[in-house]
Amino acid sequence: GIILSISLVIAVILLIILSSFITRPLQGVVDKYIGDAIMAFFGAPAKMDDDPYQAVMAGLEMSDGVDEFNR
């Protein structure tokens, strides 16, 4: 019904917003969403020398984004 449709729309909007935190300037790929967590990986399809750095920066940017969103 209408509740399911609204939930689906909200889920799609959140998917777009959360994906932008990982994929915007960084070379990560969102693998899946698990509850309120995001599983992403770096180094695919091609491994880069700074994959660990990119992963840490993505985490820090997401943390900052959540803080900004919650204001």
Question: In a few lines, what is going on in this structure?
Answer:
With 71 residues, this protein is an alpha+beta fold.
Would you spell out the secondary-structure blueprint of this structure?
Elements (H helix, E strand, L loop, with lengths): L1 H22 L4 E7 L2 E6 L8 H19 L2
Antiparallel strand pairs: 1-2
SSE series? HEEH
**Strand-residue proportion:** 15-25%
Distance between the termini: 32 Å
Name the helicity range.
55-70%
Summarize the main sheet.
2 strands, antiparallel
User: How many alpha or pi helices?
Assistant: 2
How many whole angstroms does the radius of gyration measure? 14 Å
Please state how the strands of the largest beta sheet are arranged side by side.
Answer: 1-2
Oligomeric form of this entry? single chain
User: What is the arithmetic mean of pLDDT?
Assistant: 77
Descriptive notes:
This protein has two helices and two strands, in the order αββα. The model has no long low-confidence stretch (mean pLDDT 77). The protein is of the alpha+beta class. Helices cover 58% and strands 18% of the residues. A two-stranded antiparallel sheet has the order 1-2.
